[in-house]
Amino acid sequence: MAHPNGKTMSSIGFSKHGKTSELAKNSVAYPHGFDARNNIVIKVHAAAVNPVDKALLSGDLKMVFPVATFPHVISYDVAGVVEEADLEGKFSVGQPVFARLFGSPKDGKKTPWYRGAMAEYCVADTSNVVLKPENLSFEEAASIPLVGMTALQVLKASGLKEGDSIFISGGAGGVGTMAIQLAKHVFKASRVVTTASKGEKEKLCKSLGADVVVDYKTSNFVEVYGGTNADKFDVCFDTTGESLQMSSIVNDGGRIVTIAGMATLEELRRIGGTAWILKLFVKRKAKRKEHKAAQSVNADWNYLFLSPSHADLSTLASHLKSGAIKPVLDGVWDFHSEDDNDGWKGAFNRSFSGRAMGKCVVKIV
Q1: What CATH fold (topology level) applies to the domain 147-303?
Q2: What residue segments make up the domains of the chain, in order of their start?
Q3: Element of type H or E holding 14
Q4: How would you classify the pairing of strands 250-258 and 77-84?
Q5: How far apart are CA 350 and CA 25, in angstroms?
Q6: Cα–Cα distances in Å, from 140 out to 71, 103, 132, 134, 343?
Q7: What is the CATH number of domain 8-144+327-363?
């Protein structure tokens, strides 16, 4: 959709669903056609890649999050400076901000190109935008929204409270690094156990607040914590697709929450998946084997998808400002470089590999 004045911007996106090789640098229209009352244009300084971007790129989520046009700008975590303020006056030009680009019901049923973060400019609904803490760089701020809000929402949904014990799988990943910090330093869990490989990742997890790190390459957490007299957990947080096995290590009356694998039909409906065809291949919670396994030990199992929440992003901003939690970056890549390793392609390859320690961020300004 061309800009009325022919104005364009550089972006990274895909012209059809597929593999990472479909991603390319494109010239697209500068943002226009949005409701200026409650949206701002952000001059993007940094954007972060998330594993869910791979699912959006491949088309796995196209029945839940269809795109309006191709090429579609990818990635939805952003930090930058307000270029055009909203008419309601919540923000002003020049303010440093960060956001998760969820879009708005007013966008229609399909996501417009200007809701993608991996471009020189993007559009954010003001309900999804928070001022950037001064002690964070733009790259650090861009790394936070999805992983921070996901971890916070899971921990709240799990009912984790001071003194509880929690098991978090995949502690060195983007969500894992946030979950460890929030569980230990904000929710005040008494015991935080996670999984990671020995060496750098183990050290990272311990530095963030993990009491014990199980080396998943040499140990099975079910064997370590699944015995009759073992120290089991009040809460299990699954980021790696292992929630079925967690029924062996959860306490009677405990809670298992997963963000990995296939969502439940109820959760897809809750976040706006209205397509009738979903019910043909997505199971309801009651029919999931993970739920049945949890029920068999008098525990609860749920799948959680991230929800827009200005309050949660604001809470994270205050914890970041106080130093209770900190961003964890695997690396920063250059938007303007086409180099396979140092350029923007490197960020996607690294994030999608599943081997990153923390977040992969692309620097634009």
Answers
A1: Rossmann fold (3.40.50)
A2: 8-144+327-363, 147-303
A3: strand 8-14
A4: unpaired
A5: 18
A6: 27, 22, 10, 11, 18
A7: 3.90.180.10
